Amino acid sequence: MARPRSVGPAEALLGGKRPRIVGRRGVVAVAVCLVLVATALMASLPISQPGTAANNAATGTAAGGTAAAAVIASPSPVPSASDSPSPSPQTSPSAPPTPEPRVGTPIPGSAFLAYTVRAGDTLSRIANSFGLSVTTLYWANSSHVSDPQLVKIGQSLMIPPVDGLAIAVQAGATLKSLADKYGIDPNELAAANNLSDTTLVAGQLLLVPGAETPPLPATQAPGTVTNWLGKLIWPVPGRHTITQKFGCTGWYGEPRWGSCAHYHDGLDIGARTGVPVVAAAAGTVIYAGWRKRGTDGAAGGIVVWISHGGTLYTTYNHLSAVSVKIGQRVSAGQRVGSVGATGAAVGSHLHFEVWISYPWSGGTIAGARDPLLYTSTKRDVPLPAAVP
Questions:
Q1: Which end of the chain has fewer surrounding CB within 10 Å, N or C?
Q2: What is the model's pLDDT at position 108?
Q3: Cα–Cα distance, 128 to 293 (Å, whole number)
């Protein structure tokens, strides 16, 4: 009796039949089938994956030998610059607003410019902006600027083209007579004033370039504004802790002034951040917001300046927020901001100043006065109910 033979795995797949060995044509057919299978597998993969085509080519070579080399890998698309995602905008920290540059308006038929004084201006600051000396600017406007330390918001100033002496042409004067008087060539005088017509008119404003100007007139500010003494409202209702008084101090951070090594030009009133700050008297807001670094009073951080009429001004410094805007009329006791610690402040408090001239006129604290002379810690007023 014949011994039953064992069935191999291949025969099992074929129902127990021994597989038939195929010839060379069968080998080629199998290779073609493998290539088609590899191609189908490659097509089913997502083409967006980096390096997919190259990996498929390598896989095909391993599975189908040299026949897989017929599979051509498609080049990966190169993203254009426009396809690249834009970077997310970064949130910039809060910063003081940049003030607009000082720009003069041309005057037809004149080399001078017209400029309107705005909040924060002083004569010296305007002169520096236009590259002029203070004396040149003052004497060009001396007919309507009596005090070189005081210029007012909205006031119109004449801006000379260069340093020199501004003169008003007298009746009968000619270009040659003026040139001879000031020792200058007539052509140079005409060029400095953009004169196409050398016929002069009485009252015409000319600039004699390089001519020496007189010094600024000596002015003496009043020691006090008597009609305001003791009449200002306390600016931080309910908070009467004075952390630094006006005048000479031992605090190293204060500037030198007069005979004082360290001088404090205001009154510091201690209070937590957010406590309401009110106007000490009715007036008009002439500045509200950050004081830019490099400007007078910049150490005050966020500030409010108020003009109370005449020569009296008050300022509220180191605020955390303001509640008013430039040009706004405020009443006594109206909220103008909140206590804070912005600028050069040590701890949360209000730095309150009283000035008898425009704040920082001439870049000095000569016009600052002791706030306690003008107010009292007992002069509180309740906040209006409508004010948050």
A1: N
A2: 87
A3: 16
Contact call for residues 296 and 353 (beta carbons, < 8 A) = no
Q: How far apart are CA 47 and CA 51, in angstroms?
A: 9
CATH (one of 3.10.350.10, 3.60.60.10, 2.60.120.920, 3.30.420.280) for 105-209: 3.10.350.10
Q: Which residues of 219-244 are buried (b: 16+ CB within 10 A; e: fewer)?
A: eebeeebeebeebbbbbbbebeebeb
- Cα 319 to Cα 70, 284, 338, 351: the distances in Å are 77, 18, 6, 9
- In the prediction, which pLDDT does 62 show? 38
pTM here is 0.48
Cα separation, 281 vs 290, whole angstroms: 22
By CB neighbour count within 10 A (0-12 exposed, 13-18 middle, 19+ buried), where does 75 fall? exposed
Residue 279's CB: how many other CB atoms inside 10 A? Answer: 24
Q: Is residue 158 a contact partner of residue 112, using CB atoms and an 8 Å limit?
A: yes
User: Around Cβ 210, how many Cβ atoms within 10 Å?
Assistant: 14
Bridge partners of 166? 207
**Residues 317-334 pLDDT 10s:** 999 999 999 999 999 999
User: pLDDT tens-digit profile of 285-321?
Assistant: 989 999 876 667 778 999 999 999 888 999 999 999 9
Do 175 and 200 form a contact (C-beta atoms < 8 A)? yes
* Nearest one of 228, 220, 221 to 372, comparing CA atoms: 228
Q: In the CATH scheme, what architecture does the domain 226-374 have?
A: Distorted Sandwich (2.70)
Q: Partners of 244 in the beta sheet?
A: 268
Backbone phi, psi, residue 34, to 5°? -65, -40
Domain borders along the chain are: 21-65, 105-209, 226-374
C-alpha distances in Å from residue 98, one per residue of 81, 124, 293, 315, 360: 34, 20, 10, 21, 20
* 81-136 residue pLDDT tens: 333 333 333 333 344 444 467 888 998 888 999 999 887 677 877 888 898 888 89
